[in-house]
């Protein structure tokens, strides 16, 4: 399930891409399927990295190099200008000082390097916070979300850091009701029959990709897409 569209990055053979906050490696896989592209996934979560490493053999489908390693987004273990593109998907909402990570991304990006940044869309995210408020709620989880982003304000902030905007889109509209349902049933979010049923529907949709649900999500993404993806080119 990719949030970033790889065709928006125009990655040539031999390009080096970092997936920062890669989790279990979904965008590592997505970038690795582009012909000749080399990709490095970076995360601090040992459990997620373990899952990413177990599947590493599938990552370099396009014939490039693929690697997954533990690293701190505030102090990336790479030299200046090491990457042609950086993907940072659903990470900034977890960070208390995301501006410092944006600076670090700029350090490791080459001039005219591409940045694909995704965060939860404001109003679906706000509804999650409202449906499961307070101590132990949606926003009060270890490593959970610490803020709600206004996408336009974030885009202006990234542009001010030395980037030109290259576009945006919304994604995962069918996932928004799933999270609203989980938040409304927060005390039983993992075992409630309705939550389990909707999760099975999402897995079926992901694996089968029927035209009806793909068309429905395409139509609903601009209205209720769970995530917003922002694309930039480094200019400074």
Describe this structure as you would to a colleague.
The chain is an alpha/beta fold and 236 residues long. The protein is 37% helix and 22% strand. It is built from eight helices and seven strands. It has a seven-stranded mixed β-sheet, with helices on both faces. The mean pLDDT is 94.
Please report the distance between the alpha carbons of the first and last residues: 32 Å
Mean pLDDT across every amino acid position:
94
The DSSP helix count reads 8
Strand segment count: 7
User: Which class do the helix and strand fractions yield?
Assistant: alpha/beta
Largest sheet: 7 strands, mixed
Unreliably modeled segments: none
In angstroms, what is the radius of gyration?
Answer: 18 Å
What would the principal axes of the Cα set say about the shape?
globular
Work out the helicity level. 25-40%
Write a brief structural summary.
The chain has 236 residues and is α/β, with parallel strands linked by helices.
List keywords for this structure.
alpha/beta, 22% strand, single chain, 236 residues, seven-stranded mixed sheet
Mind sketching the topology for me?
Elements: E1 16-20, H1 26-32, E2 38-43, H2 46-54, E3 66-70, E4 83-89, H3 98-108, E5 109-120, H4 122-131, H5 151-160, E6 163-171, H6 175-184, H7 193-208, H8 211-224, E7 227-234
Parallel strand pairs: 1-2, 1-4, 2-3, 4-5
Antiparallel strand pairs: 5-7, 6-7
Helix pairs in contact: 4-6, 6-7
């Amino acid at each position: 399930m990719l949030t970033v569209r790889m065709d928006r990055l125009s990655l040539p053979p031999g390009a080096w891409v970092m997936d920062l906050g890669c989790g279990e490696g979904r965008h590592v896989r997505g970038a690795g399927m582009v012909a000749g592209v080399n990709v490095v996934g970076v995360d601090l979560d040992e459990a997620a990295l373990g899952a990413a490493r177990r599947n590493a053999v599938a990552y370099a489908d396009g014939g490039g190099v693929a690697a997954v390693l533990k690293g701190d987004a505030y102090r990336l273990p790479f030299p200046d200008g090491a990457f042609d593109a950086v993907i940072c998907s659903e990470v900034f909402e977890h960070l208390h000082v995301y501006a410092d990570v944006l600076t670090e991304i700029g350090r490791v990006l080459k001039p005219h390097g591409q940045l694909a940044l995704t965060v939860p869309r404001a109003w679906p995210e706000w509804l999650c916070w409202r449906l499961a408020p307070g101590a132990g709620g949606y926003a009060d989880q270890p490593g959970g979300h610490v803020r709600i982003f206004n996408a336009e304000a974030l885009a202006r902030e990234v542009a001010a850091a030395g980037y030109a905007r290259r576009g945006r889109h919304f994604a995962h509209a069918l996932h928004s009701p799933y999270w609203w349902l989980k938040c409304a049933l927060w005390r039983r979010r993992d075992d409630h029959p309705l939550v389990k049923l909707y999760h099975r529907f999402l897995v079926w949709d992901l694996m089968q990709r029927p035209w009806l649900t793909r068309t429905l999500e395409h139509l609903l993404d601009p209205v209720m897409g769970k995530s917003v993806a922002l694309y930039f080119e480094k200019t400074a």
